[in-house]
Write a structure and sequence with these properties.
Blueprint lengths: L3 E4 L3 H6 L10 E9 L4 H4 L12 E3 L13 E2 L4 E6 L12 E2 L4 E2 L8 E6 L1 E2 L14 E4 L2 E7 L1 E6 L5 E2 L5 E11 L9 E14 L3 E2 L10 E5 L1
Antiparallel strand pairs: 1-15, 2-3, 2-4, 2-14, 5-12, 6-9, 7-8, 8-11, 10-11, 12-17, 13-16, 14-15
Length: about 220
């Protein structure tokens, strides 16, 4: 399922206030049947600002849905920083790229680039800009200079298996630190799953964490 990742604006506040330790805290993925994001991307700091406030409605849990209310604890959590020149994915000629793909030039120049327009790269190497934020057209791809390194936050894929018969429907996945109390559980990010997604009759509902981009990618200047 295609996803769009959005980080809550107050994540940095929660991190600086010492409210989240991704490595050691209980971090959960919660499925939402619906979510009217509105201003919550900037204003929400806690789970209560999203779910208890009613702008996000948790997926139906219990029974044959295979979903447990409150979400699933993420396992295999990692946080990895890679300098641009060591980033393992090199841009290649005449290759299909999608929006969000991250590459470095085959001749490393100290920067990484992210596709802002998907398409097929050109047959020759583009002139890579060395100003952060600058873009370059490469065949059908537009690359933006994102910085000098990449921080990847990752975890094992969460998955819920439905009963047979049984149905699980969700449009968003919300990631948060679970303190046991919604009003003190900081939200981290959400994935827009591209509309209502359905798993049924023994099928698995598995939002895919990309092998190179993980749960979240952040760039450093």
């Amino acid at each position: 399922m295609p996803v769009t990742v959005a980080v809550y604006g107050k994540l940095q506040q929660s991190l600086w206030e010492g409210r989240i330790n991704f490595a050691t805290d209980t971090i959960k993925a919660m499925l939402l049947a619906s979510y009217t994001v509105g201003s919550t991307q900037d204003s929400a700091q806690y789970l209560s600002d999203v779910v208890t406030a009613g702008v996000g409605v948790e997926a139906t849990g219990g029974g044959s849905t295979g979903y447990t209310a409150g979400g699933q604890t993420l396992t295999g959590k990692t946080v990895t920083y890679t300098a641009a020149n060591s980033w393992g994915v090199q841009r290649a000629n005449s290759t299909a790229y999608t929006v969000g793909d991250v590459v470095r030039p085959a001749s490393a120049n100290g920067y990484v680039y992210q596709a802002t327009t998907g398409g097929t790269s050109g047959g020759s190497v583009p002139t890579w800009p060395t100003t952060i934020g600058a873009t370059v057209t490469d065949g059908g791809v537009t690359w933006a200079n994102m910085g000098r390194g990449v921080l990847v936050v990752d975890a094992n894929d969460p998955s819920w298996t439905t009963g047979n018969p049984g149905t699980l429907t969700a449009s968003h996945m919300l990631v948060f630190k679970d303190t046991g109390t919604p009003s003190t559980s900081p939200v981290i990010l959400y994935w827009d799953l591209g509309g209502s997604q359905v798993a049924s009759n023994g099928g698995a509902f598995t939002p895919q964490l990309d092998s190179t981009e993980g749960l979240l990618v952040q760039f450093t200047g």
